[in-house]
Design goal:
five-stranded mixed sheet, 32% helix, NAD(P)_OxRdtase_dom_sf, single chain, glutathione biosynthesis, glutamate-cysteine ligase catalytic subunit binding, alpha/beta, four-stranded parallel sheet, 254 residues
Length: 254
């Protein structure tokens, strides 16, 4: 018996929180056939594919429960790491992959209002949470993204657990800033590069993906709160074994 096409809309109309997990994108054959030109396009495509698959497999029991928190995932795309292979892998997500510890976590700067400069005060609450995870041995190393020399220095001097890396967006600068390079070298901070847009998933983009996948809902009621991108890389070889996204969204007013 197929799923009632209205079930997903009914569940989202009653839920307060949505957890969406794409699973391993390398298991999505249809995504492999279409090469997204940007990470934002890839993410939006993944959200839509996950919502479409999930909504086609909703069980009658779930509809009867009307849970406050919806877990939106596709079982065939989720892939745990073989424990025998764990030492060969560099991992950046935990329970999703069935591991007890992450090798590294890099936090992107939290969103701030236009015209406001990112300060240490913006970073502190997020960094303290990461420090707690390091101290409880859930994470080995933590890093930052898109901090300039002054911002990185302030964080380094304040933090109990020091950042071991800082990602630099080379789309906004052709070469590493010399002052940042010198500071990172002095304190053994690894400088990495990325080409992500400033905002990987906007509120409007998420709502459009939600509306296109499940037309009979009020998509504007839903707001993405946070997004995590994870990867599993074979050490010393640079081969990507697994990658995916996890996000949380909330319904306004809930």
């Amino acid at each position: 018996m197929g799923t009632d096409p209205r079930a997903a809309g009914a569940l989202l109309a009653r839920a307060r929180t949505l957890h969406l997990q794409t699973g391993n994108l390398l298991n999505w054959g249809r995504l492999r056939k279409k090469c997204p030109s940007t990470h934002s396009e890839e993410l939006r495509d993944c959200i839509q594919k996950t919502l479409n698959e999930w909504s086609s497999q909703i069980s009658p029991d779930l509809v009867r429960e009307f849970p406050d928190v919806l877990e939106c995932t596709v079982s065939h795309a989720v892939e745990k790491i073989n424990p025998d292979e764990r030492e060969e892998m560099k991992v950046s997500a935990c329970s999703v992959l069935g591991v007890a510890q992450l090798d590294s976590v890099i936090i992107a700067s939290p969103p701030i209002e236009d015209g406001v400069n990112l300060s240490l005060e913006h970073l502190q609450p997020y960094w303290e949470e990461l420090e707690n995870l390091v101290q409880s041995k859930k994470i080995v190393a933590i890093g930052t993204s898109d901090l300039d020399k002054t911002q990185l220095e302030q964080l380094y001097q304040w933090a109990q657990v020091k950042p071991n890396s800082n990602q630099v967006n080379l789309a906004s600068c052709c070469v590493m800033p010399p002052d940042l390079t010198a500071f990172a070298k002095q304190f053994d901070i690894q400088l990495l590069t990325h080409n992500d847009p400033k905002e990987l998933l906007s509120e409007a983009s998420f709502q459009e993906a939600l509306q296109e996948s499940i037309p009979d809902i009020q998509a504007q009621e839903w707001v993405p709160l946070w997004l995590l991108r994870y990867s599993v890389i074979v050490k010393s070889r640079g081969i990507i074994k697994s990658k995916g996204y996890i996000l949380q969204a909330k319904r306004r007013g809930s």
